[in-house]
Q: What sequence folds into this?
């Protein structure tokens, strides 16, 4: 998958995030001297080709008052993991939820969900909600609490990328 000079300009302009405006693609287009439709078409093509995996919000949960954050890990039946993961991902206190292969025998967990709250007690209550949702598909679980904020960034182009 290769990109041309215009794609590179779009990626460079947006790698720090889209502008927080009603028409972010129009603003990017203005920065680059392009039409909004071209920016949208090129970003869509880069998504379709896999150059861009996704466009997503990366909130600072601490700034939002959610200072108790725990990565919950779940060992659930594989046959139901996608269905249950979608339900967990839709919960308002979950910022992201995904499936990963188990690393047996030490790591039996296949479903991960980041739970947020203003206190650890609130996060534990959310964890109980997830346990109830998982029901008899749940075999074991754990939670790993955040101890510091890591810098979140999207894709960055190196000078030699094509």
A:
């Amino acid at each position: 998958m290769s990109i041309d000079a215009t794609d590179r300009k779009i990626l460079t302009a947006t790698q720090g995030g889209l502008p927080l405006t009603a028409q972010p693609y129009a603003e990017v287009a203005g920065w680059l001297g392009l039409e909004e439709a071209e920016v949208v078409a090129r970003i869509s093509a880069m998504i379709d080709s896999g150059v861009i995996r996704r466009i997503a919000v990366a909130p600072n949960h601490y700034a939002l008052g959610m200072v108790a954050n725990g990565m919950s890990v779940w060992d659930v039946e594989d046959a139901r993991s996608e269905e249950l993961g979608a339900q967990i991902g839709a919960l308002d206190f979950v910022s992201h939820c995904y499936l990963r292969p188990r690393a047996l025998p030490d790591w039996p967990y296949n479903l991960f969900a980041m739970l947020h709250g203003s206190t650890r007690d609130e996060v534990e209550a959310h964890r109980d909600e997830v346990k109830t949702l998982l029901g008899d598909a749940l075999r074991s679980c754990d939670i790993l609490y955040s101890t510091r904020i890591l810098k979140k960034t999207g894709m960055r182009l190196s000078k030699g990328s094509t």
